[in-house]
Task: inverse folding
């Protein structure tokens, strides 16, 4: 004689439906976290590109729009560090970081257009990531961000 299997007891009603404000808060937090993670990723790409340009790596081609490769290397290194700081602060919920992140992402998209001649796929990829980050920051940063 075998005993029937024990059924787990659910503490949540089957027809649970979160309120609209709770759902909005969850969507906002999820998009902000996603934007922060993407910003961290783009910042790391910029740091790597900056170091490669400064060290005259074969990875980077010396065909820049203006100035020289070392100047662009320092620009992307410093810009990437700023993006890493902004990404961390956005992830932690600082209101000032959303504005700083928007500025760094906006100018990063413009700066990567300068490499469109030598690295078209990479430039377009970074610009698309920047636009997704801008969307996450602008549309979903409006409410309840701690200072």
Result:
């Amino acid at each position: 004689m075998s005993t029937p299997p024990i059924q787990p007891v659910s503490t949540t009603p089957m027809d649970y439906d979160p309120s609209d404000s709770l759902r909005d808060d969850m969507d906002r937090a999820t998009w902000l976290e996603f934007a922060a993670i993407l910003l961290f990723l783009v910042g790391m790409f910029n740091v790597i590109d900056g170091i490669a340009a400064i060290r005259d790596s074969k990875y980077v081609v010396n065909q820049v729009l203006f100035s020289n490769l070392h100047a662009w290397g320092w620009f992307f290194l410093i810009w990437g560090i700023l993006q890493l700081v902004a990404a961390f602060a956005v992830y932690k919920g600082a209101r000032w970081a959303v504005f700083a992140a928007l500025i760094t992402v906006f100018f990063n998209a413009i700066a990567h257009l300068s490499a469109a001649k030598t690295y078209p796929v990479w430039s377009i990829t970074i610009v698309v990531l920047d636009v997704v980050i801008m969307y996450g920051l602008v549309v979903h940063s409006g409410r309840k961000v701690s200072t």
